[in-house]
């Protein structure tokens, strides 16, 4: 009971601690975007000055920068990201609502794949430490870490889509076949990293006394792994999940471009090139919040899995 | 303790061993021997050395200019007869020479951006670590905050905002990669500051400068070297990432990322335009990671990062 209230207090404090991060994220992104030379309405066609002034007034671009900034902060609090500068008649909220399910589906599928496959490979390697199986799995994992996804993606497209014709080379229609390649490429580096992490920590854990006890009791090895070794061995993997999520979100920018998937990453690059301030800001804020919240959840899971962490009053 | 008492202890030992001069091994020599035993790291170092030589001197040896367009051989497959050993791209430029020259840019970005992140990270971490207290807490909190930001997005924003100049690529990537370095250096400084051997040195009257030179710098150097070798591939990867989405180096300059991007455009008709730069990029990253791993095991056998 005491531990639970300590944990709740700790969670609340962590949650409040997230606010400065979020504030900084919005501030940096806002001023960076506004520091860009050229505005969203610069185009080949020269607009009459009256129309340009009207446009600027409509989007409040005629106000002093600080006023715009505070207006934007106020909007973000109410989760309204304003109208898009480039996609006329669309609000940023509408655009993001369209792109978000696509990106989240790919991201979630890739994360699950990476986590389960990665730990499986890691455990298998650790159990056969310093054998041929171990070396080849770890060599493969190093390959996964070293080869960038934008190299793997075209090669997979070439082999599986162009030559073999089994899967579509790109596009998105919510069918499983259009998801396979993007999910695999996105999951690849993370799987490799998790496999290496799991192997290392599993080897450490297998040396400890309680494992020797479990074996001495006569438990079969698979039971030893599942009931005793897996939980402590997964701790480093759990703490890596935070950076993994951030890495996957960055990776999705490239993956979505390669496979022409209409997700948030594609909109972000397009928006940045078009100086669609509001759209870019909306995506940065959304992904920032997502990373922050997921990191927070990862922390909680870590604390729940790790009996050594206790949240007492003076924590 | 004077020299004579020491040799009293050592002399019989030397005699027993049958050698005339027992020399202690420094920790650096120890690390060097451990590194040499790591076969993957040694092989990687040789391959990397070869690639560096190839990239630096190769373009002078290949008979094609990187911007020469051979209209007789556009999208030509690799062949010894045409003289394009690794084929040509859609406008007839030699893939080999372009890949080697692109490698110059990629490796240059890797080294320069790593130095930028090294300078920022080491000074930030050392300041936070040696001041300690409130300064340290505030500085590390800032690092935590920046750490949680989706930084690829900031690099993209930086490139869009300030244009795609090569200098900016160095700075933007370096300015974003210093966080780990700062954390590591700060941790090391903190623990060194309170280490007993430093206290002992101070108590026996060693001057501050000598303490820094003899004890602090050598102890920091290990982690910094390890971290530098692990940062270089990250930075190269980041540059290729940017070039791949069209925000990195601009024509006529090229880098491995830009070449992979070009190659991916016409991989159906000319797969070698994709494969050649990809292989160079992958081997380089692979080797750097192995060298970094080997160095870490050699220099820092206790705590793996």
Task: Please tell me about this protein's structure.
- Chain A has eleven helices and no strands.
- By secondary structure, chain A is an all-alpha fold.
- In chain A, 37% of the residues are buried.
- Chain B has twelve helices and no strands.
- Chain B starts with a helix and ends in a 6-residue tail after the last helix.
- At the A-B interface, helix 1, helix 5, helix 6, helix 9 and helix 10 of A face helix 5, helix 6, helix 10, helix 11 and helix 12 of B.
Low-confidence stretches of chain B: none
- By DSSP (H or I, 4+ residues per run), the number of helices of chain B equals 12
> What structural class results from the helix and strand content of chain A?
mainly alpha
| Average predicted confidence as pLDDT of chain B | 77
Distance between the termini of chain A: 16 Å
Quick one: overall form of chain A? flat
Q: What is the helix/strand order of chain B?
A: HHHHHHHHHHHH
Q: Oligomer, anyone?
A: heterodimer
What is the alpha-carbon Rg of chain A in Å? 24 Å
Compact overview of the structure:
The complex is a heterodimer of chains A (about 325) and B (about 300). Chain A has about 325 residues and is mainly α.
Which descriptors apply to this entry?
heterodimer, A: 315 residues, mainly alpha, flat, B: 305 residues, 73% helix
Question: What's the SSE blueprint?
Answer:
The complex is a heterodimer of chains A (315) and B (305).
Chain A (H helix, E strand, L loop, with lengths): L1 H34 L13 H10 L6 H13 L14 H36 L4 H15 L2 H15 L12 H31 L2 H8 L4 H38 L5 H11 L2 H29 L10
Chain B lengths: L2 H15 L9 H11 L1 H23 L33 H37 L1 H15 L3 H12 L3 H11 L1 H16 L2 H8 L4 H37 L11 H10 L6 H28 L6
């Amino acid at each position: 009971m005491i531990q639970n209230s300590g944990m709740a207090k700790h969670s609340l404090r962590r949650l409040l601690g997230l606010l400065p991060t979020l504030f900084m994220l919005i501030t940096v992104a806002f001023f960076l975007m506004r520091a860009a030379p050229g505005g969203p309405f610069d185009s080949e066609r020269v607009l009459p000055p009256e129309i340009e002034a009207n446009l600027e007034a409509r989007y409040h671009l005629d106000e002093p920068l600080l006023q715009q900034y505070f207006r934007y902060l106020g909007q973000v609090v109410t989760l309204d990201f304003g109208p898009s500068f480039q996609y006329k008649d669309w609000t940023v909220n509408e655009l993001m609502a369209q792109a978000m399910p696509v990106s989240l589906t790919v991201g979630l599928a890739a994360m699950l794949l990476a986590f389960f496959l990665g730990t499986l490979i890691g455990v298998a390697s650790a159990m056969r430490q310093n054998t041929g199986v171990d070396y080849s799995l770890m060599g493969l994992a190093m390959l996964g870490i070293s080869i960038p996804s934008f190299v793997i993606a075209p090669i997979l497209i070439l082999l599986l889509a162009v030559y073999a014709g089994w899967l579509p080379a790109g596009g998105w229609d919510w069918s499983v076949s259009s998801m396979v390649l993007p999910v695999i490429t996105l999951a690849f580096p993370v799987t490799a990293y998790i496999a290496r992490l799991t192997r290392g920590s599993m080897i450490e854990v297998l040396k400890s006394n309680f494992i020797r006890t479990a074996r001495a009791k006569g438990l079969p090895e698979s039971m030893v792994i599942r009931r005793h070794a897996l939980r402590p061995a997964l701790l480093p993997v759990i703490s890596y999940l935070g950076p993994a999520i951030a890495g996957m979100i960055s990776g999705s920018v490239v993956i979505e471009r390669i496979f022409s998937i209409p997700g948030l990453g594609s909109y972000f690059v397009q928006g940045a090139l078009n100086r669609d301030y509001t759209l870019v800001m909306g995506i940065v804020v959304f992904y920032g919040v997502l990373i922050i919240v997921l990191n927070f959840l990862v922390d909680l899971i870590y604390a729940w899995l790790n009996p050594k962490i206790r949240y007492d009053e003076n924590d | 303790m004077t020299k004579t008492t020491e040799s009293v202890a050592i002399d019989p030992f030397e005699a027993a061993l049958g050698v005339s001069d027992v020399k202690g091994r420094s920790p650096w020599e120890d690390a060097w021997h451990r590194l040499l035993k790591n076969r993957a790291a040694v092989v990687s170092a040789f391959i990397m050395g070869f690639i560096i030589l190839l990239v630096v001197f190769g373009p002078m040896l290949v008979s094609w200019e990187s911007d020469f367009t051979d209209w007789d051989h556009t999208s030509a497959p690799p062949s010894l007869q045409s003289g394009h050993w690794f084929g040509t791209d859609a406008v007839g430029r030699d893939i080999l020479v372009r890949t080697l020259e692109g490698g110059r840019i990629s490796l240059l970005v890797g080294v320069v951006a790593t130095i930028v992140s090294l300078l920022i990270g080491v000074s930030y971490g050392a300041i936070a670590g040696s001041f300690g207290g409130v300064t340290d807490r505030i500085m590390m909190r800032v690092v935590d905050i920046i750490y949680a930001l989706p930084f690829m997005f900031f690099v993209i924003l930086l490139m869009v905002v300030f244009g795609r100049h090569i200098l900016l690529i160095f700075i933007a990537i370096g300015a974003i990669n210093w966080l780990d370095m700062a954390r590591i250096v700060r941790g090391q400084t903190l623990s060194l500051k309170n280490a007993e051997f430093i206290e002992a040195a101070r108590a026996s009257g060693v001057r501050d400068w000598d303490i820094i030179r003899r004890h602090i710098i050598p102890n920091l150097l290990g982690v910094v070297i390890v971290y530098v070798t692990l940062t270089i591939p990250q930075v190269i990867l980041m540059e290729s990432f940017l070039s791949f989405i069209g925000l990195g180096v601009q024509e006529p300059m090229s880098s491995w990322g830009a070449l992979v991007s070009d190659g991916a455009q016409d991989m159906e008709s000319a797969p070698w335009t994709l494969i050649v730069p990809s292989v160079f990029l992958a081997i380089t990253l692979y080797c750097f990671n192995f060298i970094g791993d080997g160095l870490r095991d050699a220099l820092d056998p206790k705590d793996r990062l």
